[in-house]
UniProtKB/TrEMBL annotation:
NCBIfam families: pepcterm_femAB (TIGR03019)
Provenance organism: Sphingobium lactosutens DS20
The protein, known as: FemAB
Classification via InterPro entries: Acyl_CoA_acyltransferase, BioF2-like_GNAT_dom, PEP-CTERM_FemAB-rel
Pfam families: Acetyltransf_6 (PF13480)
Domain BioF2-like acetyltransferase: residue ranges: 163-299
Domain of life: Bacteria
Length: 356
């Protein structure tokens, strides 16, 4: 037990390795309208197993054991980037998930207590309600992009602005390009090659390959990999999560030829159709940095940006600096772009597993 009761409610740490407790958490998350896949035990355990960053699940519970709120956390540790309690690690969302303001306040206080117990490390909440008080809210850095899926393929095509639609039609007319979805080893290997190439070209260390395997294993049919091939060669790929009627393409990229082939346009358009066939209602394109080319590309695809708010707390008032746009990282990013891919893939996971 972490925190005392308030009108019958208390905060405790749940054991996600206990099948009954994990099932109770999943039932609560899947029934909550504001939940994300990053609140699920599947996400917490996959990140912990693949990166070594310990997962913790704080829960506000009543006397009967009924859950009234959750706060998933990963204790991120890095020699380069320091430590933090992050909700959720390697995610773009998370934060407190609760039924009412009382549960929000208790979970926020429990997180502060946990931070002090671990030496006063920073807390990062990537979404959820603002805890208020001495918590800081950071806005103006990231945008979210999502919209309802159209009723059919033709309506989806017409929902894309004319200029971008013309580019997509060129890809649709290219008979050498084919779209496929799967969860087999070959899909994982091809996705990792495409993704690793893409992030190396952006100057970012790639995540460990076992992270993608772990997410597929823990999410089961709620995750898959979509690939566009030019002949037999994978040119664009993305790992997608499915949650409460929402398709969330999460880790994706393209090789150097993707722009010429317009394979990214084809990838996401066909993925929309795949999501519709699965019964999804919302296509969530994820977050992008304000002013980035990625944000402009998503907007040109017919997605309107929505500002995102993140919340943080630290007894010292200082948060980790893991922003790739930070001036102190620019020289390193430029150097990383020049590394041969095998070298980047060897060193990158050792660095990236502490970023979170």
């Amino acid at each position: 037990m972490i925190q005392g009761s308030a009108a019958g409610l208390c905060v405790t740490t749940l054991d996600l390795r206990d099948p009954a407790q994990a099932r109770g958490v999943d039932d609560y998350v899947l029934a909550h309208a504001a939940s994300t896949p990053f609140h699920r035990p599947a996400w917490l355990r996959a990140i912990e197993e693949a990166t070594g960053n310990r997962a913790l699940m704080l829960a506000a519970v009543g006397p009967s054991g009924r859950i009234s709120g959750l706060l998933p956390l990963h204790h991120m540790k890095s020699a380069l980037f320091g430590q933090a309690l992050v909700s959720s690690g390697f995610a773009v969302d998370g934060g407190i998930l609760a039924d009412d303001a009382r549960a929000v306040a208790m979970l926020a206080q429990a997180a502060r207590d946990l931070s002090r117990d671990r030496g006063g490390i920073a807390i990062e909440l990537r979404g959820g309600p603002a805890p208020g008080g001495d918590w800081q809210t950071r806005e103006g850095q990231h945008l979210g992009f999502s919209r309802p899926l159209a009723s059919d393929e033709e309506a989806e095509l017409l929902a894309i602005p004319r200029k971008h639609r013309a580019e997509l039609r060129k890809a649709l007319a290219n008979s050498a390009l084919r779209f496929e979805v799967g969860r087999e080893r070959q899909h994982l290997r091809d996705h990792y090659h495409v993704y690793a190439t893409s992030v190396r070209n952006l100057g970012t260390p790639v995540f460990p390959a076992r992270l993608f395997r772990a997410v597929l294993e823990h999410f089961g049919e709620d995750a898959d990999i979509a690939i566009v091939r030019d002949g037999d060669r994978a040119v664009s790929a993305v790992l997608t999560l499915y949650h409460n009627g929402r398709a969330m393409p999460f880790w994706g990229g393209g090789i150097g030829d993707a722009r010429r082939l317009r394979s990214n346009e084809l990838l996401y358009f066909r993925l929309m159709g795949h999501a519709r066939a699965r019964g999804m209602e919302i296509f969530d394109f994820g977050r992008s940095k304000v002013g980035s080319g990625q944000a402009a590309w998503k907007k040109s695809f017919g997605f309107e940006p929505v500002p995102l708010a993140y919340h943080g707390w630290s007894p010292q008032g200082a948060a980790r600096d893991i922003d790739p746009n930070s001036a102190k990282y620019q020289r390193r990013i430029d150097l990383w772009k020049t590394l041969p891919l095998p070298v980047a893939n060897l060193i990158g996971p050792l660095i990236a597993r502490g970023l979170g």
